[in-house]
Amino acid sequence: xxxxxxxxxxxxxxxxxxxxxxxxxxxxxxxxxxxxxxxxxxxxxxxxxxxxxxxxxxxxxxxxxxxxxxxxxxxxxxxxxxxxxxxxxxxxxxxxxxxxxxxxxxxxxxxxxxxxxxxxxxxxxxxxxxxxxxxxxxxxxxxxxxxxxxxxxxxxxxxxxxxxxxxxxxxxxxxxxxxxxxxxxxxxxxxxxxxxxxxxxxxxxxxxxxxxxxxxxxxxxxxxxxxxxxxxxxxxxxxxxxxxxxxxxxxxxxxxxxxxxxxxxxxxxxxxxxxxxxxxxxxxxxxxxxxx
Length: 292
What we know:
Elements: H1 8-21, H2 33-42, H3 47-62, H4 65-68, H5 76-84, E1 85-89, E2 98-105, H6 115-132, E3 139-145, H7 151-154, H8 159-172, E4 180-183, H9 189-196, H10 202-205, E5 208-210, H11 238-250, H12 253-257
Parallel strand pairs: 2-3, 3-4, 4-5
Antiparallel strand pairs: 1-2
Helix pairs in contact: 1-2, 2-3, 3-8, 5-6
């Protein structure tokens, strides 16, 4: 457990969730306290919403093995993604206490880009964050820099996997999404949106902010002082922060390899809880997004 002290009421809530987990044999039982606390925080400490989110978190992952199965940060696919894409959580929150994350191509050669490997690696970084970061922020603001992204990159996206990614990030990922910034938008932005819109909730679409190449409109939302040097800020160089995060992910190799931590056993799901059957292909929302 991280060094930060857990409040008594938080310990009680964790205990209640652990007690509930013992009655859910289909779910992993070895969930870290800090991860349970993150689920609670995302759901504003509503026990019932937290239970729903935990079940959905593991159920969606079990039905998306392309993204969440066979995860090894030392394999060739992950190592290539670490080289060609900057996937970097930034160290300093915004004035509204939101966590920033930058996603951008470090190598724009589309022949090196593998869409599925990029998602698998992205979530290894996310899962590392979830157990290492002990300060829970008010929200999350991803920044996607599209400089160097081409139509050939776009052709690498597979729709069935994109659908699973969109469902998971909008319904089952334990964060409070606040804004999404797209930098250096390309001329073919309409084609990108055409791919995403069938899977995007209206609440999420309303969070999108687009920024033209060489513009400074991002600073209307995010101050320079919380951005890396490459974006006019002073929190450090993106390359150095990336190297530190790669080391953290590599150190979690065994954590990712322990599939008992990540998978649902549908054969053990209680009869009164049949929410896990055929998630993909169903219509509608699986839970209310934590948007406030």
